[in-house]
Write a structure and sequence with these properties.
Number of strands: 12
Structural class: alpha/beta
Distance between the termini: 43 Å
Largest sheet: 5 strands, parallel
Number of helices: 8
Shape: globular
Length: 227
């Protein structure tokens, strides 16, 4: 099930029709209050979220979703008005998984939905990455710190997976944007820095395993004196 939050009934109906034609179940909502009421009945596979909404806007809704453990890992695609770079940057920094600039084509929307869902789904393997008390289970799509489950957003999870699969390898911000956000957009955004800052905080004592390489980017290095 895909939830579409869009106050323009014409656009919303077209999105639901296009998703249905592509084999997805979809349900539409006009505002955030309707979305949160629907979430009480179960989680969707993905949320399409417009920024310009009556009442609570899309940015505030995104914040609430990411701050709630029950909804923090739901993939979210934001819809922004064409040319509003600020909204795009803020959305990505707050944990959106992708964005679409209005007006967008329905084929493009379906393609983005498929891409985000593909990244969000586990690959069916039982691969486990473990460094000291930090463990990432790719099969279960979970992360634990000293046995305690840690709630990560999809982007935080993907960043950690890349680092733990490539210990010691330095990644530039551009490489991480391309690999995790599937975009070559750079501009003035601190998207990567913000997500890594949040990831470090959530990893507790293992947070500084993610090392800043000045003038280049980041790498993951085990600190043998930490445990």
């Amino acid at each position: 099930m895909i939830f579409c939050v869009e106050d323009d009934s014409g656009i919303r109906d077209l999105m639901i029709y296009a998703l249905g034609s592509a084999g997805f179940e979809a349900q539409g909502f006009t505002r955030g209050s309707e979305l949160f009421e629907a979430l009480k009945g179960g989680k969707p596979e993905l949320i399409m979220l417009d920024i310009m909404l009556p009442g609570e806007d899309g940015i505030e809704i995104l914040k609430r979703l990411r701050q709630n453990a029950a909804t923090a890992e739901i993939p979210i695609i934001m819809a922004t008005a064409k040319g509003t770079e600020y909204d795009k940057v803020i959305g990505l920094d707050l944990g959106a998984d992708d964005y679409l600039a209005k007006p967008f084509g329905m084929m493009e929307m379906v393609s983005r939905v498929r891409a985000v869902l593909r990244r969000a789904k586990n690959d069916g393997t039982a691969k486990i990455l473990r460094i000291d008390g930090l463990e990432l289970d790719a099969g279960g799509h979970t992360v634990t710190v000293d046995g305690a489950r840690v709630q990560l957003t999809l982007k935080e999870y993907e960043l950690l997976k890349i680092f733990m699969e490539n210990i010691g390898l330095v990644f530039t911000r551009e490489q991480l944007l391309q690999s995790v956000w599937d975009t070559d957009y750079i501009g003035e955004t601190r998207t990567v820095d913000v997500h890594i800052g949040m990831l470090r905080t959530k990893l507790g004592k293992y947070g500084d395993y993610i090392e800043t390489v000045r003038g280049v980017g980041y790498r993951f290095c085990k600190r043998t004196n930490k445990v």
